[in-house]
């Protein structure tokens, strides 16, 4: 270091030939920080909570009822960030339900809040110089005569707080087992957290994922869980006995994202894709051991998931996404395997079984 400093000094002081500048690679940007919504307000219809922080000015969160001064809408970051500014716009198209009697609050720890700006004409903004913030909160300062509508929250910070790219809200029904409400809320939040990953893994041109999924726990359902049409039904009996099996609900969330219209898709592959997302993306390493002599690519669920994992790793990282796209379009044919890998489904199955025996 001393020689480098002297060399630069000598160049300037003694007219020596300038030293060529050393190019350095730019520092990578820090990974964005995730966030979640906590609020005392129920959602009106499909105007879900995450619409308030999705980067889309055409969407908004709307409360079901008129909020009071004890209500709040809070965006909590996964970790504190250095905030430069926070801007909140409220109201619906035409200026309806804009918030004037309200305050924008911030918190360094996500627990203790202080007022940072007042709302005027439906907007509030505060500027900081890198202040550490863990959460921002919108709170009415009096009982309102209209619902709360939050158009968009904009946060400028380092690291960046990632907006909800795939907004989703789980609506719960625990009428059959109110004692399971805490478990159901925890599970719903986990599924909401995994939703962006699932949507990315199964994205295809022109497809728009659901923004509302209804999850119900039913005492008269004797299976584990099932999904269809944006609804998930789980067994009270099963989840009382196996509360740790949240992956089963993640599996059903995958079915909601698959959203296949055609009945011509092979069931083993439909379930295999759902378990592939579960065991290779949500909880990798938990798929368990398979018996080579009994393993068949069309064994469904975790067996087919293991087969998909093998093909994806060896041949094409986009295998599951490509299979999902053709099934979503109702155009699945067995020849798609050869299109993707250059080998038939039977050949791939034999190769996979051979790999299990090693």
Automatic annotation (TrEMBL):
Residues 1-21 form the signal peptide. Pfam families: BSP. This is Secretory protein. InterPro entries: Galactose-bd-like_sf, Uncharacterised_BSP. It comes from the Bacteria. Keywords: Signal.
